[in-house]
Specification:
heterodimer; A: 154 residues; Arp2/3 complex 21 kDa subunit ARPC3; 6 helices; 82% helix; 0% strand; globular; B: 113 residues; alpha+beta; mini-chromosome maintenance (MCM) complex, domain 2; 2 domains; three-stranded antiparallel sheet; elongated
């Protein structure tokens, strides 16, 4: 299980530097897959790696803060929604994407001071939602693949 | 069971869309802005009128540099040495309340009326 998480972590390390600006949230795809196909602990490990690498991308302590806020909050929300059993994969993923962006914006407000950044909220809500939905759909085949791989190893 | 989840998903997505629309509508929106106010790390850095073409190299902590260009009544960041480049991708802004933000450098450029 830990090995799987490590592999995911490695794949993740190749992904996040790809797209500047509005990111596709491919890292979240890995977290989501781990959460459903491996275990909560595996997903947490992947999430931690993702947060750390995301922080490195920004290259500063503040960067780590953005990454941590977005990653941790979205992880917790996705876990809570999954546990509640009321939402499907796409819903969980979409919520994760949205709160990830909200959390980062909140940190940005705290760091930069002022609520002017609220102007970016609608855009961030929509982009988080769309990427979350895309990732949710993309996760379906990933999860079944990962589950099959897991069974094969046993 | 599955249908119920689908419904919940759709409701969740619709909720976010509505929230985004409400925030969008609530935000005060003015006409054309008069000046670009530059803030670095929460502190006032410079104010440039949009009516005059100008260039300003914004230097922030730890070597951050953003080149703000004002031309034709619009402000844009044309160059930045930050790793994300969001400020450059934002493009030109000219109406009141619009922002260009560079998170890594803690630079905010706001258009005021």
């Amino acid at each position: 299980m830990a090995a799987l998480a490590l592999v995911f972590g490695y794949i993740e390390s190749l992904i996040p530097t790809g797209i500047p600006g509005v990111k596709l949230g491919l890292g979240n795809l890995v977290v989501l897959t781990a959460m459903y196909a491996v275990s909560v602990r595996g997903a947490a490990a992947v999430s931690a790696v993702k947060i750390f690498l995301g922080g490195l991308l920004f290259g500063s302590f503040a960067g780590l803060l953005y990454s941590l806020a977005g990653g941790a909050v979205s992880f917790l929300v996705m876990l809570a929604l999954k546990k509640s059993g009321r939402f499907g994969l796409v819903g969980v993923s979409a919520a994760g994407g949205v709160v990830h962006n909200i959390a980062q914006l909140a940190v940005a407000c705290a760091v930069l001071g002022g609520i002017k950044l609220a102007y970016m909220l609608p855009l961030l809500l929509i982009s988080g939602l769309v990427t979350g939905i895309v990732v949710g759909f993309a996760a379906v085949p990933c999860i079944s693949l990962a589950q099959r791989a897991g069974k094969g190893k046993k | 069971m599955k249908k119920k989840r689908l419904l919940a998903d759709i409701l969740l997505i619709a909720g976010v869309l509505i929230a985004a629309a409400v925030v969008w509508l609530l935000l005060p929106r003015g006409g054309g802005g008069a000046a670009a106010v530059v803030t670095v790390n929460g502190e006032h850095y410079a104010s440039l009128p949009l009516s005059e073409d100008a260039e300003l190299l914004i230097r922030s902590d730890d070597g951050g540099e953003n080149l703000l260009v004002i031309s034709g009544g619009k402000a844009r960041v044309t160059e930045s040495n930050c790793p994300t480049g969001v400020c450059v991708e934002t493009g030109a802004v000219s109406s009141e309340g619009q922002l260009i933000v560079c998170l890594p450098h803690k630079v905010v450029i706001e258009i005021v009326g």
